[in-house]
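Morning. Coffee machine broken again, so started the prediction first thing and wrote up yesterday's gels while waiting. Chain of 165 residues, entered below exactly as on the submission form.
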Amino acid sequence: MASWDSPWARGLLPPVEDAAEHTKLWWAAAGVMAAGGGWRGARAAVTGVAGMAVAQVLSNGVAKQLVERRRPPKEWFWHEDVEDRPDSSSFPSGHTAAAVAFTAAVAPTWPWAGAACAVPTVLVAIERVHSGAHYPSDVAAGAAIGLAAAAAVRAAPRLLLRRIS
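Came back before lunch.
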């Protein structure tokens, strides 16, 4: 995956990474959902953003601080994208955690929007390995954190209501 030098991948993956940087892609998706999706879109947007925020805290604020892992060696890659990599710990992938959390939090509320978000989510995960920013296990851990964050955000209202009553 990392050394895949396809014109298709070279043309598609860098713009996906740019869009996902600083969670811009997910904020834009939330804005579109909230503006055009009625009550369902607004609820999906809020849940998605909350899931993404929890995933970011867990991945970048907690896990990256606990696990110091070097990025994959530059020698493994034949393309130039490897030069533009973060200096932070490789483990876990915060981009993947945010993408998966957003998508997994949105999908139960609005399945069509969740399905649409799944496509860029998968592309973000692929891009993180292809660009040399992460090992596949970093991406898998980011996905697990994203799923856990989405589950926590979706369960929180029920738990709070149960606690109050």
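DSSP finds six helices and no strands in the chain. Going to sketch it on the whiteboard this afternoon.
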